[in-house]
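From the methods appendix. Each design record in this collection lists the tokenized structure first, followed by the designed amino acid sequence. Records were kept in a plain field format so they could be parsed without special tools. The example shown here is representative of the layout used throughout.

RECORD:
FOLD TOKENS (604 positions):
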């Protein structure tokens, strides 16, 4: 068979896609296989126009490129639950945000993706010995047939999707995985590349439908507020997840000070991070704008100059002095540009902090907090001080003399490091609160602590989940998504646990209500409201009260599984159906504001 090399290449390509689905626990349906195969046919059929001698090496190179892209997708998916995109290019310089924890994403079996390279090389050498006279064989007719067949197989599901009115390809996709399942591996990456190229040359403008959604959202926002204007101290604690609060390991409390802090503050155990690929930068953005992260990349690097109605700017207009404090490079995650755009008058960065002992990426949190108090004392009252701590950042490295916990039963060094750094941060927060009280900066201030996102160690079957006996869908959801939140309004005499569930989009409206400042365009709702908030995540999943919805991204919007958080059991989909469209619309409105400057098209 004169083109057997080509058919062997296709067999290897198809087998690698199945291997990808095994490694990522993603769906591998027959329809997905066909559309992925069609993409491979279209992209590789041209090799049949080349002599067999050259084609062998081209196909070998294509297998290597395919494996490189697949293994990169696997590693990215393990950390972010999404696939690589060309729109991540502006964020690539920030990837050291993952730090040494990147090594935890790599498994020896991943390199099986390259096994076909060696097998195909051996096969090529065998062919060259067995068929020395067939080296100049070309098959232009077969190339045309394969290209046409591939194109038809690829176009058929798209046409079907269009006929059914599924809008995923025109803007309703809430996650890249939706496009992956519709277009297949090659189709997804090709479509993503095309979108990236088009975005360079096209000036985006929201559709009439999207403008109407933004206008409707703006009309539902309250216009008036009044009250005192206390100093506001907002502290973002790195990788702090709710599971560590109250947790004991070998009889030792992981966070002894934070455990008792709820006696002095309102504590929200059902508060959720809504970050996506931007992680820490997503948390900062969502907290300060009450908008959602992008489905690909970070707002900080992709749309740093877009128009928002952010918390710092609202406070600035209300008479506040506003300052961001982060003891790291001011240009990292493009913070200096973004902070200026959203209304921070001051940015105290690495150069404004002493060169003392580092823990992880920057100076230790205790010195960071104490120096930040000195910066706050230089601000005009009332002030808004937004602080981003760093000591508990992945890969969770900490000096030996700071490791205070025994951690019996834990063997994973990354997990052990996480608990050690969180325990250290607990002590740093205790020092910070003590100094605020000593400087008379505590009682009359609005003070808030919250976790920015999970540890990145919450996967099913991992040591953390196993030790905590977390196995069900809802238990894994809460382990992954809940981060602690403490709020102390001015003059609070007694703290307590708050039952209301909320997300990071809800914090800015809460702060503005407590500060007596009118709210601009924000998608969240105050945590002081009696209205039950919907908590939406970037993949279209959501929580509403006791209900948790997990969408099926392999099908059209509206298909998924509904769970009761209290029981952990799957329940009738009717309990979730009333909120599915609202969740998708929330993401769509946010994307319109961020990517297309949607606020410029609404009537105020």
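DESIGN:
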């Amino acid at each position: 068979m004169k083109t057997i090399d080509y058919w062997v290449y296709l067999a290897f390509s198809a087998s690698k896609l199945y291997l990808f689905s095994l490694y990522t626990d993603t769906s591998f349906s027959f329809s997905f296989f066909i559309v992925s195969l069609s993409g491979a046919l279209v992209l590789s059929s041209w090799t049949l126009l080349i002599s067999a001698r050259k084609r062998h090496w081209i196909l070998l190179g294509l297998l290597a490129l395919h494996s490189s892209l697949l293994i990169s997708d696997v590693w990215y998916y393990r950390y972010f639950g999404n696939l690589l995109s060309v729109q991540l290019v502006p964020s690539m310089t920030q990837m050291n945000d993952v730090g040494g924890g990147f090594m935890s994403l790599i498994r020896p079996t991943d390199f099986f993706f390259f096994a076909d390279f060696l097998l195909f090389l051996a096969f090529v050498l065998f062919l060259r010995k067995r068929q020395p006279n067939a080296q100049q064989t070309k098959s232009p007719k077969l190339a045309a047939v394969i290209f046409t067949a591939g194109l038809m197989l690829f176009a058929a599901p798209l046409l079907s999707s269009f006929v059914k009115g599924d809008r995923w390809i025109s803007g309703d996709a809430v996650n890249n995985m939706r496009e992956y399942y519709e277009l297949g591996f090659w189709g997804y990456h090709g479509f993503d590349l095309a979108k990236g190229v088009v975005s360079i040359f096209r000036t985006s403008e929201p559709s009439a439908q999207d403008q109407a959604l933004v206008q409707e959202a703006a009309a539902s926002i309250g216009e008036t507020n009044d009250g005192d204007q206390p100093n506001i101290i907002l502290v973002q604690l790195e990788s702090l997840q709710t599971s560590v609060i109250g947790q004991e390991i070998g009889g030792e409390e992981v966070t002894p000070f934070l455990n008792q802090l709820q006696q002095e503050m309102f504590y929200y155990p059902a508060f959720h991070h809504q970050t996506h690929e931007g992680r820490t930068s997503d948390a900062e953005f969502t907290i300060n704008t009450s908008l959602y992260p992008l489905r690909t990349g970070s707002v900080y690097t992709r749309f740093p100059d877009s128009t928002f109605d952010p918390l710092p700017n609202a406070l600035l207009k209300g008479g506040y002095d506003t300052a961001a404090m982060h003891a790291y490079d001011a240009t990292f995650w493009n913070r200096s540009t973004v902070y200026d755009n959203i209304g921070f008058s001051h940015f105290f960065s690495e150069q404004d902090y002493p060169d003392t002992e580092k823990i992880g990426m920057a100076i230790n949190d205790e010195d960071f907090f104490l120096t930040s108090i000195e910066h706050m004392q230089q601000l005009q009252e009332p002030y808004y001080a937004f602080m981003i701590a760093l000591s508990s950042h992945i890969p969770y490295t900490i000096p030996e003399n700071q490791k205070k916990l025994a951690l019996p039963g834990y063997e994973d060094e990354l997990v052990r490091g996480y608990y050690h750094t969180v325990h250290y941060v607990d002590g740093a927060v205790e020092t910070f609160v003590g100094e605020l009280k000593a400087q008379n900066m505590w009682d009359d201030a609005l003070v808030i602590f919250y976790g920015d996102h999970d540890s990145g160690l919450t996967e099913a079957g991992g040591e953390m989940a196993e030790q905590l006996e977390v196995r069900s869908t809802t238990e894994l959801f809460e382990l992954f998504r809940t981060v602690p939140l403490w709020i102390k309004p001015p003059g609070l005499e007694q703290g307590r646990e708050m039952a209301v569930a909320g997300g990071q989009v809800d914090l800015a409206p809460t702060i503005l209500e407590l500060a007596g400042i009118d709210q601009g365009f924000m998608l969240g709702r105050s945590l002081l409201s009696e209205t039950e908030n919907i908590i939406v995540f970037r993949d279209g999943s959501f929580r509403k009260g006791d209900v948790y919805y997990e969408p099926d991204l392999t099908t059209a919007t509206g298909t998924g599984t509904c769970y009761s958080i209290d029981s952990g059991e799957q329940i009738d989909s009717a309990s979730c159906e009333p909120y599915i469209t609202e969740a998708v619309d929330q993401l769509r409105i946010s994307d319109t504001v961020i990517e297309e400057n949607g606020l410029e098209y609404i009537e105020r």
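APPENDIX NOTE: The longest strand covers residues 232-237.
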